């Protein structure tokens, strides 16, 4: 069934515009379905006199607006890069998801207000089979939209469609609650319409806040996923002449617009021209195969100096003794008659921020005592988030 759905939504689409076209087609389906549901529930609300059904009808009208926002978001994200936006407009998809999340929160607030009023001023609801049928069909349609958007959002990894998926699920639950409340009141005379509406409103508000969090996070610059980091470093570690890598930073400018920088270590005895050609090949192939704009910084390292290797091993041992999460890279040594400078970077975990001076002093004192002459540690502390995967 899932394959059939994807085949239907990707029919006659080229790989270049498939993502945007799928999002736009999903938006069109949402507009048509929600307008249809709005008209049906409006009729049911007028016939029954139920405030919760009328609120649910307005909810569907707002959902149609959300679908318009989603459609426009995908359409506008297609715009190519220009002078003012050299990284493209793909983040507009995130903004459309944020817009949908905002509308979900507005719906929750409005439904909560109408439900609170219904609790204070309960009124009988004239329920009938026509109303029950309309609401039952509405639940079925919303569950169908939930499944469609769930499949499509996972297929194209879209936060905007993920927000729409949550919205469709919430609508099915909200309409189900309205239906249950109406049936209970119809059979028993107990006025629970307002209480049920309030419970649904709180659930919708929670879902809206969570949807907003998921779309705001990439806009603020969240850390790259472990899967993406693994994808990049697995490719790099397989390349000839690469001894190690560190300082991986990934910048997300929207789906299909990911930029990454990485430091790669190679033996300083290798020809610079050979290393340069290899780096060019890695950058080009990473974009062609994975769609990631990778920029690599070349770090030449000395591998055949016993003295440098001895000091490096000593520093690594001292760091590990302090905390097993501490790692170093970019190690260099400058020797003088009165003292020796050890210059390197350390990946610092977030919870150890503020201990930089303590770590530096510990290394300097221990090495000075061990060597019998003054040793200075010139350390640059990097965030661990950029050095989660290190292989030196």
Report on the structure:
The protein is of the alpha/beta class and 392 residues long. Helix content is 62%, strand content 15%. The chain has 11 helices and 6 strands. It has helices at 2-9, 18-48, 51-77, 92-120, 129-156, 159-188, 193-220, 226-237, 272-290, 306-322, 356-371; strands at residues 244-252, 258-267, 292-301, 327-335, 339-348, 374-383. The strands form 2 sheets. Strands 1-2-3 form a 3-stranded mixed beta sheet, covered by helices on one side. The protein has a 3-stranded mixed beta sheet with strand order 4-5-6. Strand 2, helix 9 (272-290) and strand 3 (292-301) form a beta-alpha-beta unit. Helix 2 (18-48) runs antiparallel to helix 3 and helix 4 (92-120) runs antiparallel to helix 7. The protein starts with a helix and ends in a 9-residue tail after the last strand. The model has no long low-confidence stretch (mean pLDDT 81).
* Secondary-structure-derived class: alpha/beta
Helix content: 55-70%
Low-confidence stretches: none
Gyration radius (Cα, Å) is: 30 Å
Shape from CA axes? elongated
> What does the average pLDDT come to?
81
In N-to-C order, the SSE pattern is: HHHHHHHHEEHEHEEHE
The multimeric state of the shown protein is single chain
Straight-line distance between termini:
47 Å
The amount of beta strand, in percent, is 5-15%
Number of helices: 11
Q: If strands are numbered along the chain, what order do they take across the biggest sheet?
A: 1-2-3
């Amino acid at each position: 069934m899932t394959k059939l759905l994807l085949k239907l939504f990707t029919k006659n689409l080229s790989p270049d515009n498939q993502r945007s076209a799928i999002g736009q087609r999903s938006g069109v389906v949402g507009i048509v379905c929600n307008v249809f549901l709005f008209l049906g529930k409006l009729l049911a609300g007028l016939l029954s006199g139920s405030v919760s059904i009328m609120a649910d009808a307005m909810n569907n009208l707002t959902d149609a607006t959300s679908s318009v926002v989603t459609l426009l978001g995908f359409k506008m994200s297609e715009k190519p890069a220009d002078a003012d936006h050299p990284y493209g407009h793909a983040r507009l998809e995130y903004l459309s998801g944020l817009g949908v999340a905002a509308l979900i929160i507005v719906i929750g607030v409005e439904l909560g207000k109408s439900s609170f009023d219904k609790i204070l001023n309960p009124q009988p609801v004239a329920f009938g089979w026509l109303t029950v049928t309309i609401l039952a069909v509405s639940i079925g349609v919303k569950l169908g939209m939930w499944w469609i958007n769930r499949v499509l959002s996972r297929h194209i990894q879209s936060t905007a469609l993920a927000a729409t998926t949550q919205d469709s699920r919430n609508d099915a639950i909200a309409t189900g609650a309205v239906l249950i409340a109406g049936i209970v009141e119809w059979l028993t005379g107990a006025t629970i319409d307002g209480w049920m509406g309030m419970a649904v409103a709180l659930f919708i508000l929670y879902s809206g806040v969570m949807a907003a969090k998921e779309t705001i996070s990439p806009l603020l610059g969240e850390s790259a996923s472990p899967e993406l980091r693994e994808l990049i470093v697995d490719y790099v570690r397989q390349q000839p002449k690469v001894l190690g890598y560190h300082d991986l930073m990934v910048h997300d400018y929207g789906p299909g617009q990911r930029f990454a920088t990485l430091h790669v270590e190679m033996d300083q005895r290798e020809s610079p021209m050979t290393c340069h050609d290899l780096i060019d090949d890695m950058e080009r192939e990473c974009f062609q195969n994975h769609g990631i704009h990778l920029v690599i910084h070349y770090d030449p390292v000395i591998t055949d100096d016993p003295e440098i290797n001895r000091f490096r091993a000593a520093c690594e041992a001292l760091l590990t003794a302090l905390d097993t999460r501490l790692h170093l890279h970019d190690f260099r040594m400058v020797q003088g008659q009165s003292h020796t400078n050890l210059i390197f970077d350390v990946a610092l975990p977030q919870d150890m921020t503020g201990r930089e001076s303590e770590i530096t002093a510990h290394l300097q004192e221990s090495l000075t005592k061990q060597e019998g002459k003054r040793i200075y540690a010139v350390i640059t502390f990097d965030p661990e988030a950029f050095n989660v995967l290190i292989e030196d």
